[in-house]
Design brief:
Blueprint (H helix, E strand, L loop, with lengths): L2 H11 L3 H8 L21 E6 L4 H8 L8 H11 L3 E3 L14 H14 L2 E6 L9 H21 L3 E5 L18 H22 L2 E5 L8 H11 L4 E6 L8 H8 L5 E3 L16 H11 L3 E5 L11 H18 L2
Parallel strand pairs: 1-2, 1-8, 2-3, 3-4, 4-5, 5-6, 6-7
Length: 328
């Protein structure tokens, strides 16, 4: 045997072995797609889901042990009865919030969801990086990392977070009037990048929700995410929070990048607007983007108006299903 020839041949093919192995195993070399639209395959498969904020008041009452309250477990039963296929198991309705709940709670919830055939999209926190206080931002990163682990234990995929100030009708400039948008954007991107790196280690995508005016336009939102520069960080597209004259244009611009959605009743005023959302237009945008997956719906109570989520959610779900069918 000519050992020199064998050695030369081996050295030539060695760099190709990982690629060849990936082909054999059905894998592919990792392609960084940060800053790029998600590459979807096949016909969009859309699954109605529940964002549990729809039951905000009743969940808070349940945490206090009030008789008119509900629990997250009862909402799993509600999803099953309504044919909702998934649930956004938001963290602030779980025991011990803002700290993680006991593992026993998470695993019991996970098991119950499995028994009912309900997919757990993930969970959500509410932190803000719109502050000049570095210690507060560091604490927010640490908090999100805790909930990355919670999301992983639940078997979810997306941890929904806020980068913005949290209150309606309050500008991001209120807490930090002396900083430019670019300055704030730079530190928010740095913090989200750290969260995304931790998410990657646990198989969890950081889904940044456009919840306020800091990301009030599609250009602002996408620029921030491109500054983060991680394929483990993408938009949870909130249909109610773009502040432009025609939010549908911004929704369509962000849709190809969306890792998750929050579908509200209006595209104006955080979803509280008087003009109802055009669900067929939204579904055409979703389908054009190629998105497949859950469409969590979020109905909202308006001050001075009667609101019963046990009535509003099924009614809105019916409209969503009709729009999905009409655009198929």
């Amino acid at each position: 045997m000519n050992t020199d020839c064998s050695r030369r041949s081996f050295l030539k093919i060695t760099p190709l072995l990982p690629v060849a192995a990936a082909g054999v195993l059905g894998l592919r070399p990792q392609i960084a797609r940060a800053n790029e639209p998600i590459k979807h395959i096949g016909v969009p498969f859309l699954k109605p889901a529940l964002n549990v904020y729809s039951f905000n008041s009743k969940l808070n009452a349940g945490l206090k042990g009030e008789s008119n309250g509900v629990t997250m477990f009862e909402l799993l039963d509600f999803c099953a009865k309504q044919g909702l296929e998934g649930i956004d198991a938001t963290g602030y309705y779980m025991p011990n919030w803002p700290n993680p709940p006991p593992d026993s709670y998470l695993y019991e919830f996970k098991r119950r969801a499995h028994d009912l055939g309900i997919g757990i999209l993930g969970t959500g926190t509410h932190d803000t990086f719109i502050t000049t206080d570095k210690a507060e931002r560091t604490a927010a990163v640490a908090h999100i990392k805790q909930w990355v682990e919670v999301c992983s234990k639940l078997g979810g995929t997306v941890l929904r977070v806020f980068g913005d100030y949290l209150f309606r009708h309050k500008s991001w400039k209120t807490p930090i009037p002396n900083n430019s948008h670019a300055e704030v954007e730079a530190w928010v991107a740095d913090d989200l990048r750290e969260c995304a790196e931790y998410g990657k280690q646990h198989g969890i995508i950081i889904g940044v929700q456009n919840h306020g005016d800091f990301n009030g336009t599609a250009d602002d939102f996408l620029r921030l995410l491109k500054l983060v520069g991680s394929e483990w960080c993408g938009p949870t597209l909130d249909t109610g929070y773009f502040t432009t004259p025609d939010p549908y244009v911004d929704i369509a611009q962000v849709a190809p990048y969306a890792v998750n959605w929050t579908v509200k009743q209006s595209v104006f005023d955080g979803g509280y607007g008087e003009v109802p959302i055009d669900l067929e237009r939204i579904m055409r945008i979703v389908r054009a983007s190629g998105y497949s997956g859950y469409l969590p719906i979020e109905t909202l109570s308006s001050k001075g108006k009667t609101y019963d989520p046990f009535t509003f959610v099924p009614a809105y779900l019916k409209k969503l299903r009709a729009a999905v069918a009409a655009t198929a």
